[in-house]
TrEMBL record:
Organism domain of life: Bacteria
Annotated PANTHER family: 3-HYDROXYISOBUTYRYL-COA HYDROLASE, MITOCHONDRIAL, 3-HYDROXYISOBUTYRYL-COA HYDROLASE-RELATED
EC class (word): hydrolase
Pfam entry (one): ECH_2
CDD domains tied to this protein: crotonase-like
Sorted UniProt keywords: Hydrolase
Catalysed reactions, as listed in the record: 3-hydroxy-2-methylpropanoyl-CoA + H2O = 3-hydroxy-2-methylpropanoate + CoA + H(+)
Originating organism: Streptomyces polyrhachis
Location of the Enoyl-CoA hydratase/isomerase domain: 16-334
Descriptive protein name: 3-hydroxyisobutyryl-CoA hydrolase
GO molecular function terms attached to this record: hydrolase activity
EC number(s) stated in the UniProt entry for this protein: 3.1.2.4
Length: 345
């Protein structure tokens, strides 16, 4: 049976990757990761290919993330398939960041989780008025991975910490402000832009289609965001949000208190560690350690159940409170894995 989950093609001087599971919002699975990686290998060695273009099939978005239903089922069964998937996915994320040819990601519509990993590490990242870009993992008992901690740790001030802990989706203006995208092109112009990339260098094609980046709403909230998220711990962040007097900050505190307490503490630590490491690969190693640890916690299965399987939106977190998540547990999530450590070819 032919695998058409990723459509591959070349036209002129461009190669095209199209994620093709529109009914699943192009959710990424292990076979798709392998297919993309093999195509990038081929095109890297092909002198006729000057540019690689990533897009998503359907009208809803580029990619909603990894196939978390499969992760849910695998976690209940023991977790071996998920760790193998993450290993290859994270290696692909690093490869995209280092790809020697222009890699153009059309970040139209929903771009979340693993979709961010496929796009936001690219050399040319294009958002549209339809873009909704997020790392929503704290809502399912996980952490921002696929290099998300590396990207968000380098956003201005504490904006990345805000996005990582809350899982807030941002539009084009905030995506550019936070370093998740580079350019704005109206969605209706993407087909023509993709066509032009077959015969024009990226810079020329963008010059024809790029428009002014929209306003970034997060910019006006920088004062309370930077103050609150500079705190040393998640409980103190919540306290500062509640004490700020800003209605948006109070709403944010309530959002945080609905997330997995375990995920919040692990994510904050991951961000702080990612801020100190020199390379994306270093951050991916840390994320891989934490991902493996969280796979063994009850919150990942429970979070996916509540959000995706049963859709009751009422997860029962364990531990239930931030105070019950110990610093010792968080530290163990980042302990070296020895022979199981993530390596890069």
């Amino acid at each position: 049976m032919t695998d058409d989950s990723v459509l591959l093609g070349t036209r002129g001087e461009a190669a095209y990757l199209t994620l093709n599971r529109p009914r699943a919002l192009n959710a990424l699975n292990h076979a798709m990761v392998a297919r993309i990686d093999a195509a990038l290998t081929r095109w890297e060695r092909d002198p006729a290919v000057r540019t690689v273009v990533l897009a998503g099939a359907g009208e809803r978005g580029l990619c909603a993330g990894g196939d978390i239903r499969a992760i849910h089922d695998d976690a209940r069964a023991g977790g071996g398939a998920s760790t193998a998937f993450w290993r290859d996915e994270y290696r692909l994320n690093a490869r995209i960041a280092r790809y020697p040819k222009p890699y153009v990601a059309l970040m139209d519509g929903i771009v979340m989780g693993g979709g961010v990993g496929l796009s936001a590490h690219g050399g040319v990242r294009i958002a549209t008025e339809r873009s909704r870009i997020a790392m929503p993992e704290t809502g399912i008992g996980f952490l921002p991975d696929v290099g998300g901690t590396y990207l968000l740790a380098r956003a201005p001030g504490q904006l990345g910490t805000h996005l990582a802990l809350t899982g807030t989706a941002v539009g084009a203006g905030d995506a550019v402000l936070c370093g998740l995208a580079d350019h704005f092109v109206p969605s209706g112009q993407l087909p023509e832009l993709a066509d032009r990339l077959a015969c024009e260098p990226v810079e020329e094609a963008l010059h024809r289609h790029a428009a002014d980046v929209p306003d970034a709403p997060l910019r006006e909230h920088r004062e309370w965001i930077d103050h609150a998220y500079a705190a040393d711990s998640v409980p103190e962040i919540v306290e500062r949000l509640l004490a700020s007097g800003e209605p948006a900050a109070k709403e944010t505190a309530e959002t945080l208190l609905a997330k997995s307490p375990t995920s919040l503490k692990v994510t904050l630590t991951a961000l702080r560690l990612a801020r100190e490491v020199p390379t994306l690969e270093d951050a991916l190693r840390l994320e891989y350690r934490a991902a493996r640890a969280l796979l063994r916690t009850p919150d990942l299965v429970e979070g996916i159940r509540a959000q995706v399987v049963d859709k009751d939106r009422r997860p029962r977190w364990s531990p239930r409170t931030l105070e019950e998540v110990t610093e010792e547990f968080v530290a163990r999530c980042f302990a070296p894995l020895g022979a199981g450590e993530l390596t890069f070819p």
